[in-house]
Give the backbone structure.
Amino acid sequence: MTDAGVTGPVIRRLVGIYDADGTLRGELTYWVGARLGRAHCALCDITHGSVREKAEWKTCRLGLPVAFDTYHRNDQPDDVRAVLAGTYPAVLADTDDGPILLLGPGELEACEMSPDRLISAIESAVERRGLRWNDGGGPTAP
């Protein structure tokens, strides 16, 4: 993917928001709820196994040209919160024009728990929105 001719906002970082709270109680509630089928977060399914971050996700994340920072519903930045308006999980591009929604719950669910599919979905969303990567390149999946 090249950004030749693209003049849209520059992506400084990617931001993922989990559909869970980042407190100890929130993490435990989500973990138990997920095992009982009462809680679900497609972004959690992509980035984490039952307890820790997936090795495949770590590799994919390191291949991105910008940082991919994650937050929970309760600790997300205010400007991100304003864009999402309570819709979780999500992935946004933090650009020089502010945060721009790239992927919502449906698009993350369509990744079917695959870090590689998430990277492809991000690339497609960046292209559709006419955004530019900070270094001029695009993500490269391993």
Summary: The radius of gyration is 15 Å. The beta strands are 10-18, 67-72, 90-95, 98-103, 132-133.
